[in-house]
Amino acid sequence: MVEYDYSQIVVFSSDYNNEMSRRVPLFDPLLVPIQYSGLDEPAIAHNRLTPELLRARFQQKKEWTPEITDESLQSIQEYGPQALRVAAVLIPIVIRHQEPMVILTLRASHLNDHAGQISFPGGRQETTDPNIEFTAKREAFEEIGLPESHVEILGSLPDYMTITGYQVSPVVSLVTTPPKLIPDSEEVAEIFEVPLAFLMNPANHQVRQWDGPLGSRRFYAMPYESKFIWGATAGMIRNLYHFLSPF
Q1: I want to staple 161 with a disulfide (CB 3.0 to 4.6 A). Which of 72, 140, 157, 192 is the partner?
Q2: How far is residue 227's CA from residue 115's CA, in Å, rounded to a whole number?
Q3: Is residue 238 in some structural domain?
């Protein structure tokens, strides 16, 4: 699990309300107003998203500063790093016709946490898991049937803290063309893919702000065709963008 100094993180929202309740009333993120659409940041060139250059980037020691979203800031303030439950997600990148694609899931609507939202395959670390990479691969196999033998781990991004009390380690991987993926109907409603180049282009990133009785929360959204990527998943994608950015 990647460790980093919270004091050096760029805070996403400097005016975050510390009094905001953890159990925020449910809202439809599609109806939340857009503050910014198409962020004025350079896209990562398509020719920098090859398997070879992705491997090389994870082998480098280049310094970079992750973002922390309102969600993670609130989670840190309310739980403290020691109280969060450890979890991992796999960010699986598969090459389709020379195009890097990211595998994502639509979570089942009956789940307790993040029901009906788009996420990476992943879940809570079990006591029998030897490390966080094992957790990510195990969960990917359980949720979408992705065999471990098809997964090449590149490395991990800084942990993302969720409002539901999880400290999530995003594990980035390359996936050799897998057999047909099969969703676990108890957890996953759908498996789909999004071009990595689309996600690595801030022109496709939105900042939305929800205002409630106890404060406000800003979050990222990345609508793609009929899919609405937002929240924790979008926040992790933003840090992948920062990590891969040469600027």
Answers
A1: 72
A2: 15
A3: yes
Two tokens, residue 49: 């998203």
d(CA 105, CA 10): 29
HEC states along the chain? Answer: CCCCCHHHCEECCCCCCCCCCCCCCCCCHHHCCEEEECCCCCCCCHHHCCHHHHHHHHHCCCCCCCEECHHHHHHHHHHCHHHCEEEEEEEEEEEECCEEEEEEEEECCCCCCCCCCEECCEEECCCCCCCHHHHHHHHHHHHHCCCHHHEEEEEECCCEECCCCEEEEEEEEEECCCCCCCCCCCCEEEEEEEEHHHHCCHHHCEEEEEEECCEEEEEEEEEECCEEEEHHHHHHHHHHHHHHCCC
Separation of alpha carbons 56 and 154, rounded Å: 9
Are the C-beta atoms of 175 and 128 separated by less than 8 Å? no
Compute the distance between CA of residue 21 and CA of residue 146 in angstroms, rounded to an integer. Answer: 37
In a domain, 155, yes or no: yes
* Phi, psi of 164, rounded to the nearest 5 degrees: -90, 5
Q: What CATH number does residue 124 fall under?
A: 3.90.79.10
Report yes or no on 163 lying in a domain: yes
Instruction: Using a cut of 0.85, tell me whether the model's pTM lies above it.
Output: yes
Contact between residue 98 and residue 41 where contact means Cβ atoms under 8 Å apart = no
Q: Over the chain (247 residues), what is each successive 10-residue block's mean pLDDT?
A: 42 41 60 92 96 96 92 87 90 95 82 68 96 97 95 97 93 89 86 97 96 83 96 97 90
